[in-house]
Amino acid sequence: MSQTSLTIRSVRARAVVAPISRPVKNAFGVIEAAPLVLIDVVTDQGVTGHSYIFAYAPLTLKPLVLMIEEIGRDLAGKAIAPFDLMAAMDARFRLLGWQGLVGMAVSGLDMAFWDALGQAAGQPLATLLGGSPRPIRAYDSYGVVDPKADAGDLKRSLDQGFAGIKIKGGDGDAANDERVVKGVRKLIGPDIALMIDFNQSLDPAEAISRIERLAPYDLHWVEEPVAQENLLGHARVREMSPTPIQAGENWWFPRGFAEAIAVGASDFIMPDLMKCGGVTGWLRIAGQAEAASIPMSSHLFAEASAHMLAVTPTAHWLEVLDLARAVLAEPIRIVDGALTARGLGLGLNWDEAAVKKYLV
After folding, report:
1. How far apart are CA 240 and CA 235, in angstroms?
2. Is 299 a catalytic residue?
3. Domains of the chain: which residue ranges?
4. Choice among 220, 299, 307, 316 that is catalytic
5. Contact, 3 vs 117, CB < 8 A?
6. CATH assignment, 8-125+354-358
7. What is the torsion angle, in degrees rounded to the nearest 10, for the CA atoms of residue 338, residue 139, residue 132 and residue 312?
8. In this predicted model, what pLDDT tens digit does every residue of 94-138 receive, in sequence order?
9. Are 78 and 116 in contact (CB under 8 A)?
10. Alpha carbon of residue 180 to chain centroid
């Protein structure tokens, strides 16, 4: 079947709250389970494209489902041509703006479009995009940890071959951050990359101070030290920091990245497929990263991100925070600390019994 022959028949969105292997605590709270919206784009040709988005909080599930299905009704009868559809949705939501739930819905639909195209072509998305699936170096992503209480989990990550560990900071004062970083560094040794994510919890002055205090522990990067929209604040922190600055999971669509890169907001970037415009947005951002020689990593959505990083010229790290495992027929599998894209399209298939169990 030609991948250009697909026509949208209908769009279905379902909300689930899926269990996760360990709670994720950050500076603002704890994620005990994963509120997800599963998206199915059904075509007239019998192919169904799948994707999912992470709703962050259960209260956003219902509006996201309604929005995705409402947009889907307007898409019925249209050909699956993702760049054309993205341009049409950009025009539709220009006055409302991309940020927030609209951007999440549009990005989720875009991922499902590309999944359908890959299935129709009989190819993994990485192959459809001109590359090939290959092992992508991954790091295991934690919330706030205690070096003693969580030692078993951290050692299991190392046993899986992970060459990087990310933990959360900002859940206390600078002394607590140092205690945790020092303890984790001692546990994992000097050869494992250690990253810390502040989740936008600091002001620039405090971020500069804390980063300086943590410098002796050889951090691979400091992530989102200040508010994501404070691009000048990020640039100021970066200028003063002895450690590379990582950001981008909360920058919206390619325009957001263009603005951030222009002011020198970070050393590394990490688009989130759900906020950057899905596959279509990611491809445009990857071009910006290549032009600026900026290493580019992923945020969440490991299954799809493994395909995207395989065709990203400056591919850096893949984040593993396995939010959808409970509802996938074939969850991700880490081999020697790396993840290789698999399956046709994005390689996503639902475990319908699990979906029924966790359906909201």
Report:
1. 9
2. yes
3. 8-125+354-358, 127-351
4. 299
5. yes
6. 3.30.390.10
7. -160
8. 999 989 999 999 999 999 999 999 999 999 999 999 999 999 999
9. no
10. 25
Among the listed residues 79, 61, 107, the one whose alpha carbon sits nearest the alpha carbon of residue 271: 107
- What's the topology of domain 127-351? TIM Barrel (3.20.20)
Q: How many CA atoms lie within 13 A of 133 on its CB side?
A: 17
Catalytic residue among 168, 220, 234, 316: 168
Radius of gyration of the chain (CA): 20
Distance CA 52, CA 108 (A): 6
Please choose, from the candidates 3, 173, 178, 157, the residue with its C-alpha nearest in 3D space to the C-alpha of residue 80: 3
> Does the annotation count 234 as an active-site position?
no
Residue 45: pLDDT over 70: yes
CA 202 from centroid of its chain's CA atoms = 22
First to last CA, the chain: 35
What are the pLDDT digits (tens) for 274-323? 999 999 999 999 999 999 999 999 999 999 999 999 999 999 999 999 99
- The owner of tokens 């784009």 is 41
Greatest alpha-carbon span in the chain: 60
Please indicate, yes or no, whether the overall pTM of this predicted structure exceeds 0.90.
yes
Burial of residue 154, with CB atoms counted within 10 A of its CB: 0-12 exposed, 13-18 middle, 19 or more buried: buried
